Amino acid sequence: MKEASVIELHGIKREYRMEGKKRKHIKDRTKTSQEVVVRALRGVDFSASAGEFVSVMGPSGSGKSTLMNILGCLDKPSGGTYTLDGIETSASNTDTFAYIRNQKIGFVFQSFNLLARTTALENVELPLFYSRPDKAPSNVLSMEATGAAGNQSRSAMSRKEKAAAALREVGLGDRMDHFPSQLSGGQQQRVAIARAMVNDPAFILADEPTGNLDTGMSLEIMGLFQELNRQGKTIIMVTHEPELAAYTKRIITLRDGELVSDEAVVNRRSAADDLAEWKREHALLADQNPAGVLA
C-alpha cells in the first residue's frame, strides 16, 4: 500500500515584484518607475510520501532556494497550494506558520546555526522550549494538539532526556556537555541533525548540509541521513552536488522555476561504504597504525 503524502504541492508559483529603472518624461519632467516581475517558480507540482529521501537540484537561479523557503514555511507562494502533513499552509497566519515550523519541520543548514555559548544538549533542547500547542491550526486533530500540550508541560528533566536520546541517536552520547567550539564540523552538524529530529517532525529539510565539511565528514553526514531514512525519517535535501544526490532515493531537478525532471536514483550508493573506502585510501581507519606509520 502506498504511503500517505507528507508533502503535496500543486501549481506552486512565486513571483517577486520589484521596482525597475525610473524614467524621466521630457514634457512634464515627472519620474515614473516600471515594475519588474521575477517569476522564481512557475507552477511546480511535487509530492513526497513518508519515508522518502529526495534531493532537489538545479543550476543557480533555478528556483531551488525559493522552493526550499516554501517547503520550510519561511515564505508563502504567490499561487497554488502546499499541504504539509494534512495541513494546508498557503493561507496560514503567522502563528500557524510558527507552529508548523516548530512541530512539523526539522531544519538542517549548511552553517549549523548552533548557539556558541550553549552546550550540545542545550542546543538540541531549544525546539522543545519553543513548542506552542496553543498556536496549533484548527485543522490539526485535537489529539495532536493535546499531545503537543503534554510535551510543552513536560519537566526540564524530561526535555533533557529527550534531547539526550536524540544526541545518542546521532552518535554523540559522549559529547553532550561540549560547546560547539569543542566539536568538529561534522559533530556540529550531527548536533544540528539531532536538534532537527527532537520534535519528531513530519520531515527534515536539509539545505546544502555538507557545504562546510570536507569529504570524510560529508560522507559521515550522508551516512547518518541514510540511516535515519532507513528508520523511516522523511528527508528533503537541497544540493548542487550530483555525487551527494546519488545517496538519496529520488532526484527532482528545477530549471527556470519549473520542475523539469523527477527520477528515482538507480544504483544508489552507500555513504557508509564510500566512507570506509575513503578512510582506507587515506590510511585513517581507526584500527590501522594510530601513529599513521604505513606498514
Describe the structure.
By secondary structure, this protein is an alpha/beta fold. The protein has a single domain, classed as 3-Layer(aba) Sandwich (Rossmann fold), CATH 3.40.50. The chain is 33% helix and 26% strand. The protein has nine helices and ten strands. Helix 3 crosses helix 5, helix 3 packs parallel to helix 6 and helix 5 crosses helix 6. It is globular. About 4% of the residues have low confidence.
Question: What is the structure about, briefly put?
Answer:
The protein is α/β, with parallel strands linked by helices and 295 residues long.
Outline the secondary-structure elements:
Layout: E1 5-24, E2 31-49, E3 53-57, H1 64-71, E4 79-84, E5 87-88, H2 94-104, E6 105-108, H3 120-129, H4 142-152, H5 156-169, H6 185-197, E7 203-207, H7 215-230, E8 235-238, H8 242-245, E9 250-255, E10 258-264, H9 271-281
Parallel strand pairs: 3-8, 3-9, 6-7, 7-8
Antiparallel strand pairs: 1-2, 1-4, 4-5, 9-10
Helix pairs in contact: 3-5, 3-6, 5-6, 6-7, 7-9
